[in-house]
């Protein structure tokens, strides 16, 4: 049975480190071996620092997949869609690798990130390193509970992990859409609570959706809640803050690539019966977006064999 990467369905942590790489040309054979070693590296650290609850994700960019693993490709894996949304630039970028590190200790994340950099040195170039953090017990920088529609318990695995019957080779893997969003915190904070709740479509304290008569069809809640009939997904988001930039890393995992595409269209107001794009995007800007596939540990190890 395929062993999934534990960072996909993990519970929320206090700290996150996200390392984005582009691979050096001609280093594919070595990188296959290096990437297969990463889960073992993280396992050793997780045992040594057991109280930190360390987990990880090794994700392969959609544009790089065929170069790194030319013998098999997940069904539906494609470059991040550059959709024609009016006045909204998704800023898609072709990133080759994402290494996600999450734990309850910032120093453990630092140690893990340093070991990743040492392992990949000379084979992949670091493009970006973003530090995320848990904010006010699971809220985004809006002050509202983040991802209130997320599946719970065993439903996480159903939503996020590829089923072995549908794709035996990629069982336990997950499709991933990532957004780095820059949030206009100063303008947001000028709104009163009622205005914020109208935009978000939910109560600021409890996170419960507003009653249907009060909830706009293009409120954030109405647009991002999963379409149960078409498939659900799992969000593992984290706020980040830099001296001049505050925002959110949004990571959406799903067992079906098409569900991610349809959800993105809904948020941009491009899906059928949509009545507008997500109102929260009036206070956000996409710094970059990318599409990845997160293979199972079993796949990483098998693909590294001669």
UniProtKB/TrEMBL annotation:
PROSITE patterns: DYP_PEROXIDASE (PS51404). One of its GO terms (molecular function) is heme binding. It comes from the Bacteria. Keywords: Iron, Metal-binding, Oxidoreductase, Peroxidase. It holds the Pfam family Dyp_perox_N. Residues 5-134 form the Dyp-type peroxidase N-terminal domain. Its cofactor is heme b. Residues 138-297 form the Dyp-type peroxidase C-terminal domain. InterPro entries: Dimeric_a/b-barrel (IPR011008), Dyp_perox_C (IPR048328), Dyp_perox_N (IPR048327), Dyp_peroxidase (IPR006314). GO terms for cellular component: cytosol. NCBIfam families: Dyp_perox_fam. Belongs to the DyP-type peroxidase family. This is Putative iron-dependent peroxidase. The lineage of its organism: Bacteria, Pseudomonadati, Pseudomonadota, Gammaproteobacteria, Chromatiales.
């Amino acid at each position: 049975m395929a062993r999934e990467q534990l960072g996909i369905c993990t519970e929320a942590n206090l700290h996150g480190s996200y390392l984005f790489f582009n691979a050096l040309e001609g280093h594919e054979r070595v990188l296959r071996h290096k990437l297969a070693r990463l889960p073992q590296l993280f396992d050793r650290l997780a045992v040594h620092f057991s109280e930190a609850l360390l987990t990880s994700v090794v994700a392969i960019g959609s544009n790089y997949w065929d170069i790194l693993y030319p013998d098999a490709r997940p069904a539906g894996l494609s470059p991040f869609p550059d959709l024609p949304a009016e006045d909204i630039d998704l800023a898609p970028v072709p990133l080759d690798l994402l290494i996600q590190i999450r734990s309850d200790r910032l120093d453990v994340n630092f140690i893990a990130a340093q070991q990743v950099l040492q392992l990949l040195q000379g084979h992949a170039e670091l493009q970006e390193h973003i530090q995320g953090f848990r904010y006010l017990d699971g809220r985004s920088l809006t002050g509202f509970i983040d991802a209130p529609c997320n599946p719970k318990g065993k439903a996480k695995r159903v939503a996020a992990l590829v089923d072995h019957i549908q794709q035996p080779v990629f069982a336990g893997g997950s499709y991933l859409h990532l957004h780095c969003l820059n949030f206009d915190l100063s303008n947001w904070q000028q709104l009163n609570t009622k205005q914020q709740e109208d935009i978000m479509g939910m109560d600021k304290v409890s996170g419960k959706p507003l009653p249907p008569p009060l909830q706009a069809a293009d409120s954030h809640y109405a647009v991002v809640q999963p379409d149960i009939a078409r498939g659900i997904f799992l969000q593992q988001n984290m706020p980040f803050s830099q001296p001049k930039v505050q925002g959110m890393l949004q990571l959406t995992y799903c067992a079906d690539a098409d569900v991610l595409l349809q959800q993105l269209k809904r948020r941009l107001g491009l899906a059928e019966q949509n009545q507008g794009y997500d109102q929260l995007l009036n206070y956000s800007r996409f710094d970059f977006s990318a599409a990845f596939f997160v293979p199972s540990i079993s796949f990483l190890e098998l693909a590294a064999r001669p």
